[in-house]
Every structure is written in structure tokens, then in C-alpha cells.
Amino acid sequence: MENWKTAFRKGIYHYREGKFEEALVLFDEAINSGEPESIVYDSRAAVNEKLGNIRDALRDSKRVIDLAPQRWQGYSRSARLFMRLNKFDHAQRMAQLALDRVGNEPKRRDNIESLLEQIASANQTYISRTACHFGSLPLEIATIIFSSVVADDHTRVIGLAQVCKGWRNTILETPNLWSTLVLSHRHPVKKAKAWRIRSKGRLLDLRLCTGLETASWALDELRDMPLDTLRAFTVDGFPTSEMHSRLPNLTASVLRDTEFIVVRDSVESRPIPWLWSIPDMRVRTLSVERSQFAWGNAAQNITRLEHFSFQGTLITTTLADIASFLRANPGLRTLAFWFMGVSLTVTLEDVTHKESISLPSLTQFSVDYYDFVVDLIFPQLSLSTLQTLRICRGTHPLGGALQHLVNSGAAGSLTELKIQRCAITAESVINVLRSAPLLEVLQLEHVGDEANKVLETLAKSTVTSSSIQQTQQVKNGAVQASINRSTILCPLLKHLDFSYCPDIKSGPLIELVKTRIPASATDSSPEADEDVTALRTSVPTAQIDTLIIDGCPAVDADILPWLRSKVRVVSCVYMSKKHAKWRR
Questions:
Q1: Residue 488: domain span
Q2: What does the alpha-carbon distance between residue 51 and residue 491 come to, in Å, rounded to a whole number?
Q3: Of 69, 95, 130, which residue constitutes the final position of a domain?
Q4: Which UniProt keywords apply (predicted)?
Q5: Is residue 471, in this structure, part of any structural domain at all?
Q6: Structurally, how many domains does the chain consist of?
Q7: Is pLDDT at 450 greater than 70 in this prediction?
Q8: Beta partners for 474?
Q9: How far is CA 454 from CA 286, 373, 498, in A?
């Protein structure tokens, strides 16, 4: 009897000293030395609880309950241990049994009642953290969430269906999530079959991509599938003639209701007659890339376009057909041309009788390899709401086109002007800037030795002394600004890009930034110009936010710290690694 008590007392001593491993050894010795009381098992349970041996502690607590079923200690400790194992029902039951046995001891009753509250709180926290709240959403809301995720990338539907069984069942039973089918060289037959079943014949977007021509029989899975709901259609490198024969349900009525069409890398050397000869087509977005286009047929049948882009060559096409196509679509909002080769018929009437092409809704116009457009199409365009103009790559002078912007009034609505790799004169660009008070973005890239003259003009801030004097007149205690017209070109200009213009100099850059610093900002330059300060005060101007001067070797590196202190984004890369390596 004395053997287990000695070991027990030593174990208690080590427990109080925080030496739990030594205490555990001594409690084991006490239990193995005889038939100890329940307090020894309870003490060993306490040590195992401290050491994180929860299951061993539970076994000792059960032994305590077996030896002393009328005492509360074993139940109380079991409740705490079950709570740590997230078994809250067992924990609550044990705590209630302990409360029933504690008797009239207010302090201990309060402790056990507090334990019951802890168990209830931990249970709620665990449920909120582990419960599937998404599963309690109405099906309609869950479908809307899934649709939003899939909208940007239709392939996400596969990953979503693999999250859990609930999600998978919901996704497989929602045809709208399978409304976009993209077929390429990767498992086209298997994919076509799966989408046919899961979409339940409600395809909205069908895309035939490069590589499918080697497995064109995959389209046979869609042969009997109705395509009445189709609204978007893309053909990328796939023979359209074979597509027409393998998809008999892709009828003229289906194509008539399609709103989005992309034809890319067509293998046919001639325009596809059946595609552009459908009367009253409702297509709103049309993109033709590296493919032939029947301009004449399209002008008769496509009249509702809002977005159009063409990239390719012009063969057996007349200027009159192109002009007719543009006139047939006055609702165009974005227009992009990329002419890689021009071989078309231009009659004397086309040159002498230039009827205006009015595009009153056009806001974005982009042209690559612009010579044909600038010479024959641009002078006919009426662009009253043009906001973004991008012109890139060409050999003919741009002066006539830029002057047309001024004469037609299109420059007045411009907010972005981007000219890249073009033949320009500084005077023609400055002329446009004088007529573009709303311009916010200006890019002159690879334009030779004309950019610095434009920069100098933008940097000028001359104000007559009489105007300054009038500005400083005080009436009724308030300063009256009497300058009616800003002498700063493009006062809203924020983003400038003069990349690869070797004539750009440091002085005009400093003056440009200094002129457009808000009046409230502190100018670190000690010789601040009084005229500049007066102009800032009287004329609201935007501060330069982005300045890109990559490939401008004449810019002094010493001014970059000052520029970066005044402009949020400054990029000045003198040369690429490739050129630097060549020079070394």
C-alpha cells in the first residue's frame, strides 16, 4: 500500500513543478505497484492532458468513473477532453453528469456551468468553421455564383465540378454552365459527347480551334444536336467547308441569329460565300483574321455591327465594297484594320467622288500598316465621337490624315492618340494637339527626330504679363481668373510615351513636368518661374502620371530622381540587354 502512495506523492510534486514527463513515470509506477485509488488515475489523466495525449487521458478518466461513479471529477475531466476532440455532444453529456454529482458546492457548480458554456460556444465556432454554408444556398443563387466564375474562363467548370459531391451534382445538372464548347486536338470526341449531354442541347458558344482538322469526325457527335440557341461562333484554322457538311444543324437561320463571329486562319483561298450571303444577319461583333472576307456580300447582309476588326490581305476587292460595308454599319463603336497586303481595284470615280462615311458612334479606331487606309479611306470618315486613335506602321506621310482629324472636328473628342513607327512631322502632330483639349494619353514611339519638337511645344507655358496682372485682380476679396483660354496644350494630359525617340532632351521634359505640377504642390526647383506659377493658379491642369522615355539616349540620367519625385511612374531604359551585349 505504501509503495504506490510514495510514488504518487513524488508524482504530485513533479506535476506541480511542471515536470510532466517525470510525473507520468511516477504515476505509472504507482498504478503498477498495487491497487491505487481513483485519484491516481485522475492525476495521470491530468498529466496526459497537459502532454496532449488526449486519448490516454480519456482512458484514465473512464477508469476514474468506473472506480468512483458518484464523484464528479472523472465526468468533468472527460467533458474537457471530449471538447478538445470536437465531440461536443459527448462533452455536454459528461459536463451535465458532473453537474448532477457536484452537490451543494457553489464554486465548483459555477466552474462546471462555465464549462458547459464553453462547450456550447466551441460547438458553434466549430460548426461555423466547418459547415458547408454554400450547400444551404438556394440553387438559383449557387448557379449565379458558378456562372460568374465560369464567365471569364469556361474551363473552370471542370475544376468546380471536382470540389465536392454537392458542387458536382449542381454543376452537372446546370446546362448554362456547359454552354461554351471549345474543340481542339485534345480529346475532341470525348469532350463533344460530354458537352452535348451536359448542355442539354443549349450551346451558346461554339469554338472550333486549330488542331481539330486532324480529328474532324469529332463533330459527328454534334450532328443531331440542335443549335438554335447558338449566339457565338469561332472558326480557327478549321476548314469551313467540312464544318458545313458535318454540322447540318448549323443552318442559315442559326447563323442569322448569331451575335458574335470570329473567322481566323481560314484555309480557303477565297471568301466563304455561304457565310456572308445570309440576309439580315444580326451579328454585332465580327473579327476576320488572316482570312478572306466578302466585303460586297457583307455590305448587303450585315448592318448591325458594333465591333469589327479585319486582319489580312485585300484580293479581288474594290474600294467601293469596303466603303459600302462601313456605310452599312453606322452603329460601329470599335474598328480595327490590319492590312498585310493590298491588291484591289480603285476606279477614277472612287478617287474623284469621295462620299462621306459617317460613323457617329465610333469611339475606338486602330490601324496597322496604314498606307491604304490613310490614302483612300481615312479622308472619307466622319468621326464625331472618336476617343481613341492608334496608328502603327506605314511608309506614307501621316500629315493628311492628321489634318483631316482637325478639319473634321474629330480631334476635339480625342482622349488617346497613339502613333507608332510612322512617318510624321512635328507640325502635323502639334496641329492635332491644339485641337484636342480632352487628350489624356499621347504616345509617339519610333517616330524619328520629330518627337522633341512636340515635347517642347507641350512644355511651353508662356503667359502674357497683362494676363497675369488681370488674373491677380481682386474683387470683393476674391481672385478673379480672367484667362479665358489656356495657353497649355492638352491641359488634361496625364500619360506620355516617347519611347525610342532619340531626339528627346532633358530640358523640355523638366519644363513639361514642372508646368503641370498642381499649384498646391511644393516645387523643389529654387528658380521656379513666376509665369509658370501664375499659369498653374489660373488654369486647371492635370499632373503627369506616367512618363515613358525608354530608348532615349539623350535624356540625362541625373534628372531621373527629380522626375520620379514628381511623376508616379517613370520608365527610362536606355537599351535592351541584347543591344548592350552587342555594344560590349
A1: 452-584
A2: 72
A3: 130
A4: Repeat, TPR repeat
A5: yes
A6: 2
A7: yes
A8: 479
A9: 37, 25, 10
